[in-house]
Amino acid sequence: CLSTRRGASRPTIRLVALVVFLHSFINSAQIQRGLGASRIFLRGASDMSSTHAKMKPTTKSLRVTLRRSKRLLTHGSKRKSSGNTPLKPQVPPKHARFSRSQSQKVPRNFQEKKAIEIDGQNFWKIPKDFSLAQSVCSYGYFALAPNRWTPAPHGEDEDRGKLSRPFRYANEKVVWATIRQSGSRSSLPESPPNLHITLHAPHELAIHEIQEVMDGVGRMLRVQMCVKGFHEVCPEAKDRGFGRTFRSPCLWEDMVKTITNCNMKWSGTVRMNHLLCTHVGKNGAFPTPKEVLKHKAQWLQENCKLGYRAERIRRLAACVEGIEGMEKLDLQWFEASDRKREEAFERIIKLYGFGKFAAHNVCQLLGYHESFPFDSETVRHFKEHHKASSKAKFTDIEKLARKHYSTFAPYQFLAYWFELWTAYEKRRGSTSTRWTVRGNQTESSGFFDVSKPRSKR
DNA sequence: CTCACTCCAGCTTTCAACTC
DNA sequence: GAGTTGAAAGCTGGAGTGAG
């Protein structure tokens, strides 16, 4: 590489080579002494390599290392970049399975106290076009733990479905909430949509604690979002009440879910979130940053199957808490109504582990609907539904997609997602409001998976 | 020469398909 | 059944490029 570098004179090459030699000498000496501190200087030292530097070589890691060494010996460095791998047209994921969920009962440890019934109208002015089923079943995160969606019985209005999950309040405490809807768009004006929330808490709740939980519910369902503007540019979405895409009760959960969404097929994302809630979060709730920080990255890797994401999630938690030498990340700053998308994007992309896709995804979750999380799914979608050339590159399709959705500005993401989501439904032959994840979310393959099936070898 | 930007190789993990 | 291979995902950071 050095010899091909423009303008690199021979003395420069010698000097750099000497530095590299000295560095590798110091590095190996430190590793031998068990220090490993030099890993911060390693070229391209990823979070994984740094983590592995500290790890004991397990049988598995040893096997993988040997396998790689063997491959290098036999194939040299011919490893293909995944970015250049031509995408084959994706066939509908027939292997994906959906089923009615198991009975979504309130867990036993939340049943002890009397339930608190809350009328949604006391907290929000619920729009007349609101639909619980459409709000929930509009983004894949509804299928991730700790969310549980129970679809309405067949033959009944889709809005008779219910959403249950544990919510965090007062930092560490957990309350179990079940959200139902009465009335609907179709029963106007006699019976406008309203939300009814049942809370099961281990003790009496103060008003401000209930308010905290309701803020989370409102955020998840985007209850107070006005979708009129989007429906004007996309009338098909109005017909079905689509536009309030589902998200988490807090930005922290959205950010972690985005990290688990990267470099992983959907079933893997489902499993990671399930294990995080089972092993790290209190009472099956989504873990708080503090709970994540109780564990080392290696522990999270092994117990939650997070892989290299463990270090990224841990660092994000340290940022949120402002500890371990991290500059404190104020999550409320992102939620400010006068915040500009560019400001938020710039701050997110500076965070370790957040690239372009992840930063755009967090932006759209924050409500910046012009943000466009462009990924391999967009490429597949454009090749399948917009007659993009099968040879078109990632960047070509990105330009094509930006141009295509510019007519929906400032709702590019919603238009894109509506198109993609309805294509998923068409492929599956059922509406998303009837989808759910089976009771046991640890199953690694199958349900709710829209990733590309492997071609026969 | 510096800066800002783009490009892309290499990274890690998982899992289905394949081979022995 | 155990082991191996290859494909897939998005992020990181070094290399390359062009403008000033």
UniProtKB/TrEMBL annotation:
Composition bias type Basic residues, residue spans? 65-81
Biological process (GO) annotations held by this record are: base-excision repair, AP site formation
Q: What is this protein called?
A: HhH-GPD domain-containing protein
UniProt-listed Gene3D superfamilies: Hypothetical protein, domain 2
What is this organism's lineage?
Answer: Eukaryota, Sar, Rhizaria, Cercozoa, Chlorarachniophyceae
- Point to the regions of Polar residues compositional bias: 50-62
Q: Which GO terms describe its molecular function?
A: 8-oxo-7,8-dihydroguanine DNA N-glycosylase activity
Query: Is the keyword Thylakoid in the record?
Result: no
Q: Mind listing the UniProt keywords for this protein, alphabetically?
A: Signal
Q: Give the start-end ranges of region Disordered.
A: 50-111
- Which residues does UniProt assign to the signal peptide? 1-31
GO terms under cellular component: nucleus
